[in-house]
Amino acid sequence: MTPFEIIMSDNNDDPEGDTSVVTKTKSKTKRPPLYKVLLLNDDYTPMEFVVLVLERFFGLNHAQSVEIMLTVHKKGLAVVGVFAFEIAETKVAQVMDFARRNQHPLQCTMEKE
């Protein structure tokens, strides 16, 4: 589908029966950019705590959480979700706050996809 819609109309006032063309621009809404939320590995945060964070703040089941936690542990970081800016920002803040309140140095960041 093109961004222009062509409307054909007969001009009844014209004796020769000319047809005029009217163009109407349709605006397309642009999708907002998405942001990846990443967990970073450290040598102090217990693996069980990372699993708890993934289940609690990202709605993952236990098996998914363990798999992502192991990826973070082995590779140094892992993407835990992709969200609109405000949601990603909120999740990062929630994870960081929860980690600090539990005295863990877990780092959570976000970057544009």
Automatic annotation (TrEMBL):
It comes from the Bacteria. SUPFAM superfamilies: ClpS-like. Gene3D superfamilies: 3.30.1390.10. GO terms for molecular function: peptidase activity. One of its GO terms (biological process) is protein catabolic process. Keywords: Hydrolase, Protease. Residues 7-28 are annotated as: Disordered. The keyword Protease applies. PANTHER family: ATP-DEPENDENT CLP PROTEASE ADAPTER PROTEIN CLPS, ATP-DEPENDENT CLP PROTEASE ADAPTER PROTEIN CLPS1, CHLOROPLASTIC. Involved in the modulation of the specificity of the ClpAP-mediated ATP-dependent protein degradation. Belongs to the ClpS family. HAMAP family: ClpS. This is ATP-dependent Clp protease adapter protein ClpS. The gene is clpS.
